[in-house]
Design brief:
Blueprint: E1 2-6, H1 10-23, E2 28-33, H2 36-46, E3 50-53, H3 62-65, E4 73-80, H4 85-98, E5 102-113, E6 124-134
Length: about 140
């Protein structure tokens, strides 16, 4: 698992990396950064599986760093469990391909309803979004 740590306190950043190293070789810290601006660059460069970030940091905080940049997104609302979220992504990607869209590398998941607000672990509501670099030249298709 590739991990990026974004934390402005050097001792905390190094401590997290040390603890992750003790978990086993499958947990690999591929980059670290002292603020959100540098962290975002490292994230886009390394494409980690996990990001561990502080919230309050200089230049750009953790929330700003993980907020989708302005632009055009294709969005799909997924209701169900996390076990079936892959199906939601597949529908989103299939529809984009049908419409001739060129998608970017930025994907975002927003949990709108979780197990605390819903009726259990299979009652999530997620907003899945992917950045659209270019739309197809054709007419709009009917949504799925």
């Amino acid at each position: 698992m590739k991990i990026v740590i974004v934390e402005d306190e050097p001792r905390i950043r190094e401590g997290i990396a040390m603890l992750l190293g003790r978990l086993g070789p499958e947990y690999q810290v591929v980059a670290s950064a002292e603020n959100g601006k540098i962290g975002l660059e490292k994230i886009l460069e390394t494409r980690p599986d996990l990001i561990i970030t502080d919230v309050k940091m200089p230049e750009m905080d953790g929330v700003q760093m993980l907020t989708a940049p302005a632009g055009r997104y294709l969005t799909y609302f997924h209701a169900g469990s996390f076990d079936t979220v892959r199906e939601g992504y597949q529908r989103l990607l299939d529809w984009a391909q049908t419409c001739g869209m060129t998608l970017g590398e930025l994907f975002w998941e927003d949990v709108l309803l979780d197990e605390l607000a819903g009726k259990g672990y299979d009652q999530y509501l997620l907003r899945l979004s992917v950045f659209v670099e270019q739309t197809g030249g054709g007419r709009a298709q009917e949504p799925l």
